[in-house]
Amino acid sequence: MRSLASIVLGFESLVLALATPVMISVADIRPAVALSVCLGLAVLAIVAAGLLRNQVGYILGSVVQVGAVGLGFVVPVMFVLGLAFAAFWVAAFVLGRRIEEAKKAQQAQSG
User: Fold this and answer.
1) Fewer CB under 10 Å: which end of the chain, C or N?
2) Block means of pLDDT (10 residues each) for the chain, length 111 residues?
3) Which residue spans traverse the membrane (predicted)?
């Protein structure tokens, strides 16, 4: 589960960083605000990916998902991207648990 979640957060950090110039040029947001919000969320995503060994990493990752969807109020396309990454985030949990259960079952059979 951790590896899937870290992949989602890694790609999301790239998208959030690339949303910065969009906020500045398209949405007419002041550069200081756009940089602090978008790059702040991107850094938070990277920090969350690094902390996925603990529960706090998953909490921070969920905060990033809420923030990414919230950017849709400023740049409407971020509703789509934020919801897509939130869906990937949920899928990482579901598929990650299934993979972990399958590994445990396989170890129980062979061990």
Assistant:
1) C
2) 92 95 91 94 97 95 96 93 96 90 90 70
3) 29-49, 79-96
